[in-house]
Amino acid sequence: MVKPSRSYRVFQGVNGVVLTLVVLVTLYPFANIVSRSFSGERQIRAGEVTLWPKGFNLTTYKIVFQDSMFWRNYGNTVFYTVVSTAVAMILTTCYAYVLSKKNLKGRGVLVGVAVFTMFFTGGLIPNYILVTELGLKNSVWAIALPNAISVFNLLVMKAFFESLPTELEEAAQIDGLSTYGILLRIVLPLSKAVVATMVLFYTVSFWNSWFSAFLYMDHSDLMPVTVYLRNLIAGATGAGNAGAGTAEMSQVGASIQAVTIVLTALPIICVYPFVQRYFVSGVMLGAVKG
Questions:
Q1: pTM of the entire structure?
Q2: How many Cβ atoms are within 10 Å of 83's Cβ, its own excluded?
Q3: Domain ranges of the chain
Q4: Assigned CATH for 60-286
């Protein structure tokens, strides 16, 4: 076994220190937000809260949790995210698989159409008119369909499918499998890493999205939790619907933004560890070919 040189050991040490500092700098804002969400109003305004809560209280959490509209909107977010992610994965996977076939006639045109949408869009007003005229307003489809395909995700999946050995599909064709059979029984089982990565990307995107619902939903009971929390910060709705008065809201004004951030990020933080092992491999494998 070759002994590492002194310069390499120095590099490892410096690299370890730098990466540790990067991790600490990255984690500090979130740790501070969590501390603020459990801290008192006076301590937050005085700038006393850093990594540990000061003047511990759960007033803000109680106000939000006692509001039935919060739980209704939270359920909407889960429903919208699940449906939208499923639709996005089906369409993106099928489109990427088609584009990965180099013998496909018109393949360049299909790729060009997808790439074109990365740089040019119809605009907010035409999109709103289109969604309205199609009768998609006040439904999950107003969120799922306009954002169904991310071109970045599409190109990553396309590159991954292109990296798979063509001999596998040829052997499956000889065995009598159809195109859909090859995709479902051969290609997708070999693509768990990139599929898990794309699911994570789409889930985070739809979970954090609020503007589409804000634009296309007319009733508060149809809103996702991100809109609820936004309105709570603005003081326009939220806790007042559950009977929480302005006096109660004023007691938690400085911490309510921290609470909303924690509640919004928590589900994604809980899901991420289960797909993290696929994340790096999925992106890197999908980037092998352009």
A1: 0.79
A2: 15
A3: 1-57, 60-286
A4: 1.10.3720.10
